[in-house]
Design goal:
Blueprint lengths: L4 E5 L3 H11 L3 E8 L4 E7 L8 E7 L14 E5 L2 H10 L3 E8 L6 E6 L5 E6 L6
Parallel strand pairs: 1-4, 5-8
Antiparallel strand pairs: 2-3, 3-4, 6-7, 7-8
Length: about 130
C-alpha cells in the first residue's frame, strides 16, 4: 500500500492551479473535466504520481466557496530553507500566515502559508528537523 493523494475542494480552479504551480512550484500532472457531473479534477505535485503522493484539486462547477471546518489541519511540504521559501512565496503574491521560525516548544523551523481557498500549508525546513 502507499499514499496516493490528498483531495481539496476548491472554488476557483484556475486561481488554485496558479497558486500551487506558480507560487509553490508544483507541476500540473493531469486534469480532466467531467461535464456530466459538472466537476473537474486536477492533480498537482512535485513528482509524478507513480513516485509519490500528490494533491487532487476538485472543482465542482456550481460551487465557488467552501467552509473548511475545524477538522482540517494542513498539508506539509519539506523545504531547504523556510525563510527563503517564505520570501519567494511572498514575491509571487502568496500569503504567509506564520513567518518562518522555530516551532513552539521545539527547534524545527516551520512556516505556514495559505492557499486561495484558505487551506493551510506548512513549510518544514529540512536541516535540523525533529521527527
Amino acid at each position: 500500500m502507499r499514499l496516493l493523494h490528498t483531495m481539496l475542494r476548491v472554488g476557483n480552479l484556475d486561481r488554485s492551479l496558479m497558486f500551487y504551480t506558480e507560487t509553490l512550484g508544483m507541476r500540473l500532472l493531469r486534469r480532466k473535466d467531467y461535464p456530466e457531473g459538472r466537476f473537474t479534477l486536477a492533480f498537482v505535485g512535485y513528482q509524478d504520481e507513480s513516485d509519490g503522493a500528490v494533491i487532487e484539486l476538485t472543482h465542482n462547477w456550481d460551487t465557488d466557496r467552501y467552509e473548511i471546518g475545524t477538522g482540517y489541519g494542513h498539508i506539509a511540504i519539506e523545504v531547504e530553507d523556510a525563510y527563503d521559501t517564505c520570501a519567494t512565496i511572498k514575491a509571487r503574491g502568496g500569503l504567509v500566515v506564520r513567518e518562518a521560525g522555530p516551532m513552539k516548544h521545539g527547534t524545527t523551523v516551520i512556516a505556514f502559508v495559505e492557499d486561495p481557498d484558505g487551506y493551510k500549508i506548512e513549510l518544514i525546513q529540512r536541516s535540523g528537523r525533529e521527527d
